[in-house]
Amino acid sequence: DFLANLLQGLKSPDSAVQEKAIAEAEQRLREQGASREEEEESRTTVNRTLINTSVRAFPSGIKAGLNGFLAALEKDAKERAQRRRRNEQLANALKEQGNEAFRAGDFALAIQRYSEGLEKLRDKQELYTNRAQAYLKLHEYEKAISDCEWALKCNKNCLKAYFLMGKAHLALQHFTESRQCYEKMLQIDPQKERLVKDCVDEARLEEKRLRDEERAEREVQAGSAAALSIQELLQSISSPHHDILYYTGGIRLLAEVVNSCTGQTLFRTNNGFSILRNEAVRGAFCAESKSPAEVELCVSLLLLWQAACAGNEENQRLLLAQPEVSAQLPELLSSGTAQIQRETLALISLYSEHQRGRRLLLRQDLSRWLQILMAFVKCTDARADSAMNILSDLAGEERFQTQCRAMLSTGVLPLFTQLLARAGQAERAALARAVAVLGSLCADVQLRAQLARSRHCWQACLQLLVKEPGAALVPAWVFAVLGLMMNLLLESNGTIQDFAVPISGRCLALLSHQDGRIVTRATGALSRALPASPAAVEEVVKGGVVKKMLKLLKAGAQLTSSSAIQTLSICAKSSRRAQEELLKWDKSFQVLLRLLDSGDEAAVGNAALCLSQCLLLPGAASSLLGSGVVQLLLRQAGGDALNTSVQQNSAIALARLCVAEPRHMHQLRRLNGLAILNSSMKYVHSS
């Protein structure tokens, strides 16, 4: 490149460029002369070569020599370029031969061909990376890494070199270096994020596998000792002794040995679950009234079973297959002994937190469990949280919902209403979760119907939404109760009609709460309660519900807006005062027009209904002149919405608009609206 640039400069017609090229040539000659003198240790100390760079025109002799020098340089450059092209052709041919050998699985021949290609062209990056890939196939990882390093000298941003080097480091278990290679790929090309993530995950999995193997090897070494200890302890516990404390100590030691993957397997294979065959152990475990020593023995058994069943599905299955265990679990939960209850809850949690464990539990009769676990809300320690965790896990299971039906009205509802009535004595978080559990159980239609008919349930729920003098509402309780109420309001019965006014009043009061989640649920509950009672509608309209709903709609939150426009449509449909306030607070119906232009069918249908009701008021239609409302309503009336109330309400609103203000007819005719309106009449007739 230097020689080519020099030649172009010397041949330039521009004298300034030519002088610069001569100066560069002189400097190059000096550097080469000095280097040669140092290497040959020449006695010559004076460089007698002089180049006159200040003369613009050279004598004819000097010009002839310069032209000869330039011709030689040009010839040499051409020869070098020809040799490189020839070598590059040979290298490419050898690369293709190597690729064919690689595809055929002859990796040694591929390496030979790539090496021959590199002899022809030492700076060809592809030959290094291809040879590195062949070395990987032959498990020569160090050589592969070396070739990748040479490839990076040719091209520092070569992704393939980093990729193959990462593979080689991974094979050598150099996990840190492997990840560094993959991270470098991501720095060079961020679009390779998916590939890099897969590579990094592979490196992590390989590292984990190696560690697991090392741990397994250590466990195998310790396995024989553990097996001997488990066998000896089980034999000792099985032998007849009269001292309960002896059994307790042996079971505690056994739990410590079993508390590992190998220990769990050895416990099972040595028939450890037959421990209840010992009459003394079984008697203490099943005793209704336990002495302190029997309590200690029972707690030790529960700890042993926790160690044996943690993360082990087969052991969990075998434990519940023991008749005494499945029969005693509800008795232990209701024993009244805090230590026994705590460890029983911990054991059950091992099952409830996983789908397969829940299936094992649901093979038992759990009809009493809802009532028993719900009673733990009164506890002020960790038992309440553990019990609610179990209930939350089970509440979504259809079989559990079915089993709860029988006990709901007789056992659960009285307890639940009692808990809500004494909410101040309950653990706050646990009570909120208990309410949420009942809300989850409402997924079962029969359970929901039972709860919705219970007057005590509604009274207890409303009581939690009332602010006591000198005390603040507990947000967790309010949020959970509103969720339960929203589920119950999916039903329609006389009880809901009776409570519609107080329900609506409490929900209206909560619309000013600072927690947005509570406002959203209160709006949703309000929209479901109002259809049950015209009196409830009148009360909330007097309470300023129209202005509050418009404020929520202007805020624009989608979930809240859906309930807010539904509430407005219910009020506008049955209350003239609501219509008047809507016209007063929504100037030119800007909020309704924005909803009509949204893509939410439910919001569009309710907005059209609100508008059609308000158009019965004098002056309402005139306020919409020049607003584009005709085009909006036509688009919705003639649209293909799945919810036919969109077409129906839009057609009714359009007709009332033109009747109330004939000046809208001009735009209706211009948009061919009469034909669209006529086609929409089928929805109105069908209603």
TrEMBL record:
<dbReference type="InterPro" id="IPR016024">
    <property type="entry name" value="ARM-type_fold"/>
</dbReference>
<protein>
    <submittedName>
        <fullName>TTC12 protein</fullName>
    </submittedName>
</protein>
<dbReference type="GO" id="GO:0070286">
    <property type="term" value="P:axonemal dynein complex assembly"/>
</dbReference>
<dbReference type="InterPro" id="IPR013105">
    <property type="entry name" value="TPR_2"/>
</dbReference>
<dbReference type="InterPro" id="IPR043195">
    <property type="entry name" value="TTC12"/>
</dbReference>
<dbReference type="InterPro" id="IPR011990">
    <property type="entry name" value="TPR-like_helical_dom_sf"/>
</dbReference>
<dbReference type="InterPro" id="IPR019734">
    <property type="entry name" value="TPR_rpt"/>
</dbReference>
<dbReference type="GO" id="GO:0005813">
    <property type="term" value="C:centrosome"/>
</dbReference>
<dbReference type="GO" id="GO:0005737">
    <property type="term" value="C:cytoplasm"/>
</dbReference>
<keyword id="KW-0802">TPR repeat</keyword>
<keyword id="KW-0677">Repeat</keyword>
<dbReference type="InterPro" id="IPR011989">
    <property type="entry name" value="ARM-like"/>
</dbReference>
<dbReference type="Pfam" id="PF00515">
    <property type="entry name" value="TPR_1"/>
</dbReference>
<dbReference type="GO" id="GO:0007288">
    <property type="term" value="P:sperm axoneme assembly"/>
</dbReference>
<dbReference type="Pfam" id="PF07719">
    <property type="entry name" value="TPR_2"/>
</dbReference>
<feature type="repeat" description="TPR">
    <location>
        <begin position="159"/>
        <end position="192"/>
    </location>
</feature>
